[in-house]
Amino acid sequence: MIFHFSLYGFLKNQRYFEPFLMLALLDKRLSFFWIGLLIGIREVATNVMEIPTGAFADTLGRRYAMIASHVAYIGAFICLGLFRQFGLLAAAMLMFSIGEAFRTGTHKAMIFSWLKANNKLDEKKHIYGYTRSWSKMGTAVGALIAAGLLLVTQRYDWVFYMSAVPMAFGIVNFLCYPSCVESPTTAQSKLLKQGECSHDEPMGGYEKISVGRVVRTLWNGIKKSWVDRKLRALLIEDVTFEAMFKATKDYLQPILQAAAVAVPVGALMGIQMTETQRTVVLVAVVYAVLSVMASIASRRSGKFSERFENDALATKAIWSLCLCSFAVVGMGVLMGWYFAIALGFVAVAVFQNLWRPLLISRISNYADDETMATVLSVESQGKTMLTAVMAPLLGLAVDWMMRQEMGNEAWQYGPIVVLGLGVCLWFRFAGKKEARKIVSQKEIAAWK
Q1: Which of 223, 364, 431, 444 has the most C-beta neighbours closer than 10 Å?
Q2: Nearest partner of 46 among 396, 395, 392, 377, judged by Cα
Q3: d(CA 115, CA 120)
Q4: What Rg do the C-alpha atoms of the chain give, in angstroms?
């Protein structure tokens, strides 16, 4: 199953448009504000459907939820390639949000259910980090394939169309998942594989599937996330970090586009290139290298956390690293050094891949197996809600800075520096906040 989990991550990240999403939308004559608004629409729609789809997955079947997710992705990618009008692009983003809502939290819950059924829970950080590393390798390969598509076709719409193909293969992969990836309270499917492992049947048999049961599962997951003080604080910290990252990460693309103007990429390769071709090559190379580094970071996240007395101290160290990275971005903005700005963005992306497996592992310490997908959907909902607010406001601030005659052209990215430094300083040095009172796994085990 480790192979199938890794294959899922690899195929999921064959989103050939992702390294060029902001450039593709700018090519459709959208401003940073309208792009931010599109992202906000996607996040709000995901937010509305997030927790109910998590409860759906825990009740009716996680594999069915993942298949529905990938069908929605296929439709969204085709529409994003076809349309240029804002209203139609917003509709495509709504379809994309359906895919995100069914997927987020669900697959992580599937991994942890399989680990529990196979008595491998003590390896969760290492296994989740390993499978996540393959998703980053998928991003690296996808960036290179995307560059090839753009260099051949000279059109951004093809990177959207071709992204639908790996999603179809992903559906085939889910047909190989055994029944033990489901919630213990999910009745066995008559259509999908049962597999080599399974949960013990609940006392009194499986409860009949009903709307009331879905609502009950939904309520239990929400209540657990809110009532448990330590889990609530941990979710707040994670949501803030991930929302900050999601709202800022795509600005790396126009930054690399600006850097490509000054870099003789074609001369280095011995060929003549247009500005667009230089941008495509530079973006692809940077994203491929970034993805390989992120893959290594994910795979070693378990070893990274073991260097510290507990996981809370490990996350504090990541806040410090991100603080330094945004300081580098700030220096680049002040001096107009686009490569310094890009370096800071790349560093934050790498550290996010140390962060994610560690935080998911910590969250799993507090969420029971029956409501795991729902709790992770609550986490993802909070992240999407905050991103929906951050993205358009950040885009509006960047647009406003771009219209001001202040400093050099890189100053337009100043709002990103303010946001990044502010969030990192708050969580790094607010030492008495609840997010820093989360105890280590060893302490939890001692309590038990």
Answers
A1: 364
A2: 377
A3: 5
A4: 22
Handedness of CA 150, 154, 155, 156 (dihedral sign): positive
* Residue 270 pLDDT class (50, 70, 90 cuts): low
DSSP 199: P
Exposure of 152 by Cβ count < 10 A (0-12 exposed, 13-18 middle, 19+ buried)?
exposed
Q: Contacts for 413-418 with beta carbons within 8 Å, 24 or more apart?
A: 413/251, 413/255, 413/329, 413/333, 413/341, 414/333, 416/248, 416/251, 416/329, 417/326, 417/329, 417/330, 417/333
In sequence order, what are the residues at sequence separation of 6 or more whose Cβ sits closer than 8 angstroms to the Cβ of residue 360?
A: 108, 128, 376
Name the phi and psi angles at 432, rounded to 5. -100, 10
Which domains are present in the chain?
2-187+217-447 (1.20.1250.20)
Question: Which pTM value belongs to this model?
Answer: 0.72
Residue 335 has pLDDT above 60, yes or no: yes
| 421: Cβ contacts below 8 Å, ≥ 6 apart | 323, 326, 327, 330
Q: Is the pLDDT of residue 378 over 70?
A: yes
Locate 300 and state its tokens. 């070693």
Angle between helices 338-364 and 372-403 (to 10 degrees): 160
